[in-house]
Amino acid sequence: MDNMRYPSDKNLLPHINTPSELRTLPIERLPHLAQEVREYLIDCVSQSGGHLAAGLGAVELTIALHYTLNTPDDRVVWDVGHQCYAHKVLTGRREELKRIRQSDGPAGFPCRDESTFDAFGVGHSSTSISAALGMSLGAQATGSGRRSIAVIGDGGMTAGEAFEALNHAGGIEADLLVILNDNEMSISENVGALSNYLTRLLSAPLTGSLRRGARDVLRHVPPVHQLARRTEEHVKGMLAPGTLFEELGFNYFGPVDGHDLPGLIQVLQNLRDQPGPRLLHIVTRKGKGYAPAEKDPISYHGVGRFDPKHGLTKSASGSLSYTDVFSRWICRAAAEDSRVQAITPAMREGSGLNEFAEQFPARFFDVGIAEQHAITFAAGLACEGTKPVVAIYSTFLQRGYDQLIHDVALQRLPVIFAIDRAGIVGADGATHQGTYDISFLRCIPDMVIMAPSSAVECWRMLSTGLTHTGPSAIRYPRGKDNATKLPDDLEPIPVGKAVVKRSGESGTVVLAFGPLLAAAEAVADELDLTIVDMRFVKPLDTETIADIASCHHHIVTIEENVISGGAGSAVSEFLHREGVKNVSITHMGLPDRPIEHGERDELLATLGLDAQGLRQVVLREDNLD
C-alpha cells in the first residue's frame, strides 16, 4: 500500500469505502481503523439515534470478517442485525449512516434491497445459522464455491431455531462457519442454563491454566500425551465450553478475545477454508470504547439523540408512554392479586417490567429469546389457576403463533397478552412494525382483542383481561399519551362494548380502533362527523354498528393494522352477513406492503392515517370537495 495515500493512522476511515480497499491495509494499522470506526459510530448515532452498544462491541469482528473474506461473494449473515452499523460503514454507506433509520437513510438492520453486502435481511433473532446453512448448501448445489458465515450472539443462541439449525448442520457435516459473539448480553441480561454455563466456564481461571499446563507437560511424552488427549475428551464437559457444540457435530474453537484484531484475523484465516461445520467462540464487550455504554449497555442498546460528552439524560416529559401505563398497571394488579405472573421473552426493559421484577421477583419470568416457550409456559401457569401476563412486542408475537392457537386458545386458558409496539413502530422499519396482529388474532376462536385509544383506556382494558376467563389481547402503540393520571382502581369495562364519542349530522361515521381515534376527533367538528371509539375488535359491538348503519350513509373504519383481515374487515363482514346495503364503507389502514423505517408520525402522515388523511377520505367519498 502507498503510505503517502494514508498520511496518518487517524486518517484511515475516509479512504475506506469498500472491503476491497480495507484489504489493502497492513494488519498493524487495523486497530487504528477500529478506533476511527468507533468514534464515527458514536458521532452518527448521537445525532440520529439507533442501536449503539452492540455495534461498538462488534467493530473488530466486522473488520476481521471483511479483511479475511471475499465479501460480498462470501456470505456473512448477521443475526438480528443490531451490530451491523460498522458493517454498513465499511460497505459503501459511511455518509448515509448519518441518516440511519430515517426515511431518507439506510435501514437499521441488514437489508438485501439496500446492498449486495447485506447477504440476508434480518431483524428478528436467531435466524442466521438457518439462513447461512441454506446458503452453504445452495452454493454447493450451484458450484459457486462461496463461503457461508453466520454471526450470532449468545442471546440469539438461547432460541430454539438456532439449535435446530446447529443440529441440522452438524448432522450433514455442512461447510459452515458459525461465530458465537459472546458479550453476555442480548438486550437485557442473558438468562437461562446456557448463559450460566458459558459464563461459569469462561470465568473459571482453572479452565485455561489447567488445559495449557497439562499440554505443556505431556507434549514431551508422546504415548502419555495421546492417552491424555483421549481422556480429555471424556472430561471436557467439566472444563471446556465447546462440548455442547461438538456433541452437535461442530468443531469448536475458542474462546478467543474478540477485540484482539490481529489475533482474530489469524484465527479466521486458519478457519476460513477448513471443511465441515465449525464454531468460533469469541468474547466481546458490549459498548466497547464508549465508557457510558460499557457501564450501562442496556440503556445504550437502542438510543435516541444524545450528547456524546454527557451521555443519555432522562426525559423531563410528564406524559406517560403506553409502556409506562402497562408497567404501573401490572405492579398494581400484582399487589392486589397474588395470582398475577409476568412473562417476557428477553424484553424486560422494553416491555416495562423492571419495577415488577424488583417488587415481585418470584412472579417474574424472563425466559430468554424464546417466544414459543414463553406462550406455552404461560399456558401451563394458567392451568394451575394463576393469571399469567405475557408482555411481548407485536412483531415478536408472530414467532409464537402456533403456541397461541394450539396451547392457549384451543384450551380457552386465561392468558393475557400485553402487546406493545402494535401498529407503526417507526425507525426499526419493516421487521419491527406491528402491522399484522389484529389480522392473525381475529381468526382465533374465543380470543378477546382490545385496542385502547388512550392511556386510561389501556389501563381499563388490561384490567378487563384480568377478569376474563379466556385468552385476551390488549394491543397498544409505541409512544406517549397526554394523560398524566391513571385510574385509582382496576375496574374493568364491559366486554365488546363501544362508546359513541360524538354524534354528528353529516351522515358519515368514523369507527376508530385504537389511538387513531385522535385523528378522527381532530376533524370531527369541522366535518360534523359521528365518532365511535370501538374499543374491541373481537367481540365486535355489532349492536352499535347496526344502529349506526341505520342512520348514516357512509362508514369509515380506521385502524393501525393492515386492512386485509383487520378490524375494518370485521365490520364489513358483519354488514354483509346482515344484508345491510344502504351504507357505503371505506377502510383506512395499512397497505398490503412492508412499511419501511422513518419517524412514526411521519409514516402515519405518509400513509394517510392522520387527521389530514381522514379529512381527504371523507371529503372525497362524500363528494363535498
Automatic annotation (TrEMBL):
GO terms for biological process: isopentenyl diphosphate biosynthetic process, methylerythritol 4-phosphate pathway; terpenoid biosynthetic process; thiamine biosynthetic process. One of its GO terms (cellular component) is cytosol. Pathway: Metabolic intermediate biosynthesis; 1-deoxy-D-xylulose 5-phosphate biosynthesis; 1-deoxy-D-xylulose 5-phosphate from D-glyceraldehyde 3-phosphate and pyruvate: step 1/1. Thiamine diphosphate binds at residues 82, 123-125, 155-156, 183, 290, 371. Keywords: Isoprene biosynthesis, Magnesium, Metal-binding, Thiamine biosynthesis, Thiamine pyrophosphate, Transferase. Its cofactor is Mg(2+); thiamine diphosphate. Residues 320-483 form the Transketolase-like pyrimidine-binding domain. Binds 1 Mg(2+) ion per subunit. It is an enzyme of class 2 (transferase). The keyword Metal-binding applies. Mg(2+) binds at residues 154, 183. Belongs to the transketolase family. DXPS subfamily. HAMAP family: DXP_synth. Catalyzes the acyloin condensation reaction between C atoms 2 and 3 of pyruvate and glyceraldehyde 3-phosphate to yield 1-deoxy-D-xylulose-5-phosphate (DXP). This is 1-deoxy-D-xylulose-5-phosphate synthase. It comes from Halorhodospira halochloris (Ectothiorhodospira halochloris). The gene is dxs.
